[in-house]
User: Which sequence fits this backbone?
């Protein structure tokens, strides 16, 4: 099993969710986060005053899938979330040692 952690632009969330559902992803966790990468934030003007926005709003997706499906999920997120502009996000893939469904006690692949 693989844990895929992806950060994407907020306006891409629904499009990415639909694309992942279409390839058979049955669940994901979504968190609103703030962060920065090579953008290092930016400046904005509010009521005539300029101020620095050091952290940019992003969406973090956490998805656990069978190892055989991981490459397809990464490819789907990449192609759907990409705008070609700075700040499109990042994707990390980690190994998952164990999964347990709390309600039924099912483990590993059955818990997904």
Assistant:
């Amino acid at each position: 099993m693989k844990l895929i952690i992806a950060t994407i632009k907020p306006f891409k969330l629904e499009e990415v969710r639909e694309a992942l559902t279409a390839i058979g992803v049955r669940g994901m966790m979504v968190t609103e986060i703030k962060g920065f990468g090579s953008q290092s934030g930016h400046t904005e003007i509010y009521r005539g005053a300029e101020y620095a926005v050091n952290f940019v709003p992003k969406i973090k997706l956490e998805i656990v899938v069978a190892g055989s499906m991981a490459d397809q999920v990464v490819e789907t997120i990449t192609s759907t979330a990409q705008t070609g502009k700075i700040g499109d996000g990042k994707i990390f893939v980690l190994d998952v040692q164990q999964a347990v469904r709390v309600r039924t006690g099912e483990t590993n692949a059955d818990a997904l």
Observations:
- The CA atoms of residues 24 and 77 lie 13 Å apart.
- The first strand starts at residue 2 and ends at 8.
- Helices lie at 13-22, 70-81.
